[in-house]
Design brief:
With 312 residues, this protein is an alpha/beta fold. The chain contains 13 helices and eight strands. It has helices at 18-25, 31-43, 60-67, 88-100, 116-128, 142-154, 172-175, 178-184, 211-222, 224-237, 241-251, 263-273, 279-292; strands spanning 9-11, 48-50, 73-78, 105-110, 132-138, 161-165, 188-192, 255-258. The longest helix has 14 residues, at 224-237.
């Protein structure tokens, strides 16, 4: 498997807690099913699992560790929530390693652009100690990504990747040049929320009631013309609507992170990323999405939590 440009990432945001899964997805999933899903993903060479302390109400990465992560690639995060204190990244990473039951993580992301120099220099120390193999940043704009790359370059460490919100109906980071910058600088771009919390799924398919379904149902009505186009394009490739949304990202060289909780979702993900949409199809999808002007999750939805101090 190519780590620099993996086919797709298994997201674990709804793993571990049935209450959390029910709240966000309308149903919980038991541990046996999640274990089977993990096995299915690994068998398809989708070995990267993206975790964070708060996923599944704090249970996701602990669960992954209990399943055994020695044959996985672990993508974990440090989220700065207070003013910088020396050693805070190290303390957080040690907790993550205890949860995951390993002595290193493959990729560690600075989850918000707060106190960039301090946090990234601490991550660089952990990198040199072998506790972190690659360093990435998440929820950063272009200017912040350039700054992060420069800070790491001073330590002779490359910036591995950027993990941001991106989907067919949320292309701000492409429009503002961040995606091109990543491609030009050999930086992997990972996209979260490629299905927009269920918005980019077939409205004809009944799904369990959830907070996301309640919040976004009206937007799905507005998107009906886009669904019709996605359905027609999908029929040409043997894909359904959510698979088209995923394939849209992978066809543009963007790595989709998908929250697979069941084996059939892994199978769908594999099918989607193994299908390449044509330039004309990509153009048609973008034109229709732009015409409808529907947005769900703002690309800067976490900016309220970014500390200004230290962003020099």
């Amino acid at each position: 498997m190519e780590l620099k440009q993996p086919e797709a990432i298994i997201g674990t945001n709804s793993w571990g807690s049935k209450a959390y899964g029910t709240l966000l997805r309308g149903s919980g999933v038991d541990e046996a099913t999640l274990r089977e899903t993990m096995s299915c993903a690994i068998n398809h060479d989708l070995k990267i699992f993206d975790v964070a302390k708060d996923y599944g109400f704090g249970k996701a990465q602990k669960l992954l560790g209990s399943f055994g992560s020695s044959n996985c690639i672990i993508s974990a995060k440090f989220t700065p929530s207070t003013s910088y204190q020396p050693g805070q990244v190290r303390t957080s990473l040690i907790q993550d390693l205890n949860d995951i039951q390993r002595d290193y993580v493959d990729i560690y992301w600075l989850h918000l652009p707060s106190d960039l120099k301090e946090n990234l220099r601490e991550m660089a120390e952990l990198y040199r100690e072998g506790k972190i193999r690659l360093i990435g940043v998440s929820n950063f704009n272009l200017e912040e990504c350039i700054q992060a790359a420069e800070i790491l370059a001073e330590q002779e460490i490359p910036l591995y990747g950027v993990q941001n919100h991106y989907s067919l109906i949320a292309r701000r980071w492409e429009q503002e040049g961040l995606v091109d910058w990543c491609h030009e600088n050999d930086v992997s771009f990972w996209a979260w929320a490629v299905l927009e919390e269920g918005i980019l799924t077939d409205p004809r398919v009944k799904t369990p009631s959830s907070i996301m379904k309640v919040l976004f149902q009206r937007k799905k009505t507005t998107l009906l013309p886009l669904y019709d186009l996605m359905r027609r394009i999908g029929e040409h490739h043997g894909l359904n609507i959510p698979e088209v949304a995923i394939s849209y990202c992978s066809s543009k060289g963007i790595v989709p992170i998908c929250g697979c909780r069941k084996p059939y979702q892994v199978e769908a993900l594999v099918k989607a990323v193994h299908t390449t949409l044509s330039e004309l199809e990509l153009q048609q999808l973008e034109q229709e999405a732009d015409r409808l002007q529907v947005t769900v999750l703002g690309a800067d939805m976490f900016r309220f939590a970014v500390r200004k101090k230290g962003k020099e």
